[in-house]
Amino acid sequence: MPPSAWPPGGFGDRPKQQQAPKLNIQNCATHPYPFQEGKIQNRKSQTLPLPMLDKNTLFAMSLFPYLGFLWFITRTKETPKLALVGFYALLVFVAVTIPAGIYAKVSLQEELANVDWLHGGAEAFLTLSNILVVLGFRQAVLQHRAKGMAQADESTSAS
């Protein structure tokens, strides 16, 4: 039976699907980020002021707590050295991302995320940092297990 001959409500053997709520496309196209306007609407449709924090400011401000984290973790002598190198390598990612973002904006008139080759190159440093952190903590876990097994062997051989 061709689709034109189907009954309007369907055949009745399946539940009728609910329609998704309609999206105001015009609003999305003109205002993709509501915080850019400095205002957002709550449930009662009241306009609330928002602090003017864009992604670049937030990115720069996040550096200070991370530097504090590095200071404390460096003072802890139990932090695996390779993991510590990985945490510091994240600063290389930041140091590469900032100029890459500026280059993308000034020379290519695009956001860094829209320039795949440039964004991927910067993200490679993040990947390297993550690998170093994981390998550092993996090495520490393996050393801890080996030390535990050695102590267990000593205690069984002593008795």
Structure description:
This protein has 159 residues and is mainly alpha-helical. It has two domains: 15-49, no CATH class; 55-158, no CATH class. It has five helices and two strands. The chain has helices spanning 25-30, 55-61, 63-75, 81-107, 116-158, and strands spanning 39-41, 47-49. The chain has a two-stranded antiparallel ribbon with strand order 1-2. Strand 1 and strand 2 (47-49) form a beta hairpin. Helix 4 (81-107) packs antiparallel against helix 5 (116-158). The longest helix is centred in the C-terminal third of the chain and has 43 residues, at 116-158. The N and C termini lie far apart (85 Å). 4% of the residues are buried.
Summarize the amount of helix as a percent range: 55-70%
Instruction: State the end-to-end distance.
Output: 85 Å
User: Number of helix segments?
Assistant: 5
Largest sheet: 2 strands, antiparallel
Strand-residue fraction? Answer: under 5%
Give the arrangement of secondary structure elements.
Elements: H1 25-30, E1 39-41, E2 47-49, H2 55-61, H3 63-75, H4 81-107, H5 116-158
Antiparallel strand pairs: 1-2
Question: Which keywords apply here?
Answer:
mainly alpha, two-stranded antiparallel sheet, 2 domains, 5 helices, 159 residues
Structure summarized in a few sentences:
With 159 residues, this protein is mainly alpha-helical. Helix content is 60%, strand content 4%. The protein folds into two domains: 35 residues, no CATH class; 104 residues, no CATH class.
